[in-house]
Amino acid sequence: MNSKAKIGENEKNLAQNWFKKLRDIICDEFEKIELNQVSGPYPPSDPGKFERKNTTRQGKNNQDGGGGVMSVMRNGRVFEKVGVNISTVYGDLEPLAQKSLSSRHDIPGLKDDPRFWASGISLVAHMQSPKTPAVHMNTRMFWTPSMTWFGGGSDLNPMIENKTDTHFFHKCLKKACDKTNKQYYPKFKAWADEYFMIKHWNEPRGVGGIFFDDLNTGNWESDFSFTRDVGKAFLEGFVTITKKHIGEEWTPEDREWQLIKRGRYAEFNLVYDRGTQFGLQTGHNPEAVLMSLPPIAKWP
Fold first, then answer.
1. CATH assignment of 71-292, given 3.40.50.1220, 3.40.1500.10, 3.90.1640.30, 3.40.50.150?
2. Does the annotation mark 136 as catalytic?
3. What's this model's pTM, rounded to 2 decimal places?
């Protein structure tokens, strides 16, 4: 990790504003899908709409620690539950959070100056149809006085794998990676395959995607541009796949398997997910941190 680039308020504002803009683009696109879906094997209902709720984080000694906005749609025609959260948090990192960050790379002077700032977007969608995959996407910027970096990624989690969907989703992510660096896709795909492994079952959470962290090449503009492209690539891939499967029939057996797969998804997020651990360690709103959990799941 390159720690030389000096990052100020302008870069922080640019990143924070992009995450808000991406949230608005995604929510608008998903609500259009709900509005246009008037037939098919979905429960009769009004089109789903996002409800927004402010969240806060209490810092050390009850100081303002930032917060964010949860945007959640429940019981839609197509989306059973989807959350699109944005947040900007700051303050001093407690020892447990310092240890968590430093386990991946050394952050000079963190113990002496534990200030941090982080902003990002996090999305998880659980679908009504077992034929339409669940999906996860998050991107973020993290700042400390000595280092700044980006992280995130996106991965597809089908209940019933469709190899054409898998290929198309990965193709969208590869295109975004290749635009910046042709080494990114194989590197970040391998990282996702390793990261999204449910170790106690020795099985992958889904069919992968990309995962990256600690990204600081010394060119902030390039790193930020790549981070934006990841969000756009996710949206292109997932919306196309979702529209493709609208109207497909499914069976009670398909739904049963969907609920079992959701149970596996919940296990990963509660046991292994870094974002979940960091959010709870730093005192962020638990409702926002646990937004990723499915509305209904099964453990047979």
1. 3.40.1500.10
2. yes
3. 0.91
